[in-house]
Design a protein that fits this description.
- The structure holds two protein chains of two kinds.
- Chain A is mainly α.
- Chain A has one domain.
- Chain A contains three helices and one strand.
- Chain A starts with a strand and ends with a helix.
- Chain B is of the alpha+beta class.
- Chain B has one domain.
- Helix content of chain B is about 40%, strand content about 25%.
- In chain B, a hairpin with a 2-residue loop joins strand 2 and strand 3.
- Chain B is globular and about 60 Å long.
- Classes of the chains: A mainly alpha, B alpha+beta.
- Chains A and B meet through strand 1 and helix 3 of A and helix 1, strand 1, strand 2 and strand 4 of B.
């Protein structure tokens, strides 16, 4: 099944804040870890979701 | 599909296009792996993210997943769907980090736009990279193996066939027909785009096949796009 989810920017921003809070880092710290190829385990899924949110918000 | 000038119309047309694209992905995966795939498209105005995770099994045991993540927007004419980024990843159940990533990043400038990254370790390679003062010599995944650029990059069907034929994950009987049909569609589309990048080569190739091809008699006729042809 294809499920289309229309989201508002505020929802995406809330989701981003949730992900960062769960991992206890700022977006810049996460980006720095990714740039050093230092992500482990669940951080991969989280980082990819953060990048996806940035794309949808057009602030990548 | 007819272009639509209104903002609402543009968004509506975009929605039709990304929904069709997502449905093609769903049908391909269902035909090959026999799973009832849930494809989620997150959508804001004229940007969308198509996301799905396909369980991969061996003798029925779920050992890995194929993560499909495609970012779409409208092209520069605000008419057709364009892929901004795509990532197809093989991820083992044992470890949530990727094993292989087949990626396309349309905006990439410091690495090949279409590339494969392999998450593995090899002492000899780390040694070489260390000697070359590479900033992350122990991360093989920091290397972006180039795979054909914008036009000749692998499609999802190529990755899926790799998983079935080379990695030997379970598949449905008759899977190859779906894979080949999708690949044919992809390559026809990419061929048309490659012709627009280099009409002179296209015309020359057609003439060599016996076609009569004449350039349009206009001052600003189609030119080869050298930047596109030379891009990494």
């Amino acid at each position: 099944m294809v499920r289309v989810v229309n989201v508002q920017c505020q929802q995406l921003e809330r989701r981003r804040a949730e992900i960062l809070a769960r991992h206890g880092v700022t977006l810049d710290e996460f980006a720095e870890r990714a740039a050093r190829y230092a992500l482990v385990g669940n951080e991969w899924d989280a980082w990819e979701e953060l990048r996806g949110i940035a794309f949808l918000l057009d602030d990548a | 599909m007819m272009p639509d000038d209104s903002t609402d119309g543009t968004e509506s047309s975009f929605r039709v296009q990304f929904t069709r694209f997502a449905e093609e992905i769903r049908q391909l995966v269902t035909a090959v792996f026999g799973v009832d795939l849930d494809v989620v498209v997150t959508h804001v105005a004229t940007r969308s993210r198509i996301f799905a995770e396909v369980p991969l099994t061996v003798a029925g045991e779920n050992l890995a997943r194929l993560k499909i993540d495609v970012w779409c927007c409208l092209d520069s004419y605000q008419q057709f769907l364009a892929v901004t980024e795509s990532t197809y990843q093989l991820i083992a159940q044992l470890d949530r980090a990727p094993i292989m990533r087949f990626e396309y990043e349309r905006g990439a400038t410091s690495k090949p736009r279409a590339h494969v990254q392999v998450h593995a370790h090899r002492g000899a390679l780390s040694h070489l990279l260390s000697q070359a003062r590479h900033p992350t010599p122990h991360s093989m995944d920091s290397l972006h193996l180039p795979v054909g650029g914008d036009r000749f990059r692998p499609c999802l069907e190529d990755v899926i066939e790799f998983l079935v034929v080379e990695c030997r994950f379970d598949c449905q009987e008759g899977w190859r027909a779906a894979s080949e049909a999708g690949r044919e569609r992809w390559r026809r589309m990419q061929t048309r785009t490659a012709v627009r990048d280099s009409p002179s080569e296209a015309a020359a190739a057609l003439r060599s096949l016996g076609y009569t091809v004449a350039a349009p008699e206009t001052a600003n006729g189609p030119q080869d796009n050298l930047a596109r042809m030379r891009r990494w």
